[in-house]
Automatic annotation (TrEMBL):
EC number(s) per entry: 4.1.1.36, 6.3.2.5
Its job: Catalyzes two steps in the biosynthesis of coenzyme A. In the first step cysteine is conjugated to 4'-phosphopantothenate to form 4-phosphopantothenoylcysteine, in the latter compound is decarboxylated to form 4'-phosphopantotheine.
Domain DNA/pantothenate metabolism flavoprotein C-terminal: 6-216
Family as reported in the entry's similarity comment: In the N-terminal section; belongs to the HFCD (homo-oligomeric flavin containing Cys decarboxylase) superfamily. In the C-terminal section; belongs to the PPC synthetase family.
Cofactor: Mg(2+); FMN
Protein name: Coenzyme A biosynthesis bifunctional protein CoaBC
TM region positions: none
Pathway(s) the chain acts in: Cofactor biosynthesis; coenzyme A biosynthesis; CoA from (R)-pantothenate: step 3/5; Cofactor biosynthesis; coenzyme A biosynthesis; CoA from (R)-pantothenate: step 2/5
Region (Phosphopantothenate--cysteine ligase): 11-220
Organism lineage: Bacteria, Pseudomonadati, Bacteroidota, Flavobacteriia, Flavobacteriales
Full-length numbering of the shown residues: 182 to 401 of 401
Length: 220
């Protein structure tokens, strides 16, 4: 669709949690629903973009001609899907709650219970957003930050360390913000460290605000 603000743009979005196998039936995960990423994808498509949505396990689905949904399980799979599409991406938003650690040696067979405790050794997962920041050429790259203390300072640090063009801070201190819920409260920080705060809104409204900010930066 010509004439829309994101016409001709290719957008890459990560969404949802990742699951890191402990054995064939168990995993480490988190409570991310994927809603924010899916709303960002739908909004981008409605604004004229072609979207690749890379999502970890979620109950959500999306049916839109301009959205290619790639379902992955683990952080490693999400990393590979993102890098496969990154060269052809104009704008990337990492909204996934990626597990920072994975079991080092996932068991091939279901673990049997034994007396006493159980230790599971973990190793670091790749930081997908950081790796996209390192590889950045022409892309406009956006991350999320979920902070519980020194929120703005930490988010600014993350923006600079990961070579981002903008970061969206979710405040967990605000009721109704962040994980799992249907509403969110964000602060948008651009790479000049200019900050803009928004009120508590539904996630579709938050997605509109985020796209309005990004579009104003890429057309500036
Ligand atoms: O450093 P932190 O995990 O707080 O950064 C959050 C941002 O980094 C989010 O945009 C998240 O999607 C992204 N991230 C990632 N890969 C990881 C960890 C975080 O892409 N392994």
């Amino acid at each position: 669709a010509k004439g829309l603000p994101l016409s001709g743009k290719k957008v890459l979005i990560t969404a949802g949690p990742t699951q890191e196998a402990i054995d064939p039936v168990r995993f480490l995960g988190n409570r991310s629903s994927g809603t924010m990423g899916f709303e960002l994808a739908k909004k981008a498509a409605n604004l004229g973009a072609k979207v690749v949505l890379v999502s970890g396990p979620t109950s959500l689905d999306v049916n839109h001609n301009s959205i290619e949904l790639i379902r992955v399980i683990s952080a490693q799979e999400m990393y590979e899907a993102c890098h496969n599409h990154y060269n052809r991406t104009d704008i990337a938003i990492c909204a996934a709650a990626v597990a920072d650690y994975r079991p080092k040696n996932p068991a091939q067979e279901k673990l049997k219970k034994k007396d006493g405790g159980l230790n599971i050794e973990l190793e670091r997962n790749p930081d997908i957003l950081l790796s996209l920041g390192e590889k950045k050429t022409h892309q406009f790259l956006v991350g999320f930050a979920l902070e519980t203390e020194n929120e703005v300072e930490n988010a600014k640090g993350k923006l600079q360390r990961k070579n981002l063009d903008a970061i969206v801070l979710n405040s967990l201190k605000d009721d109704g913000a962040g994980f799992g819920g249907t509403t969110n409260k964000i602060t948008f920080i651009d790479k000049n460290l200019k900050i803009k705060t928004f009120g508590l809104k539904t996630k579709p409204e938050v997605a509109s605000d985020i796209w309005e900010e990004i579009i104003s930066k890429i057309h500036a």
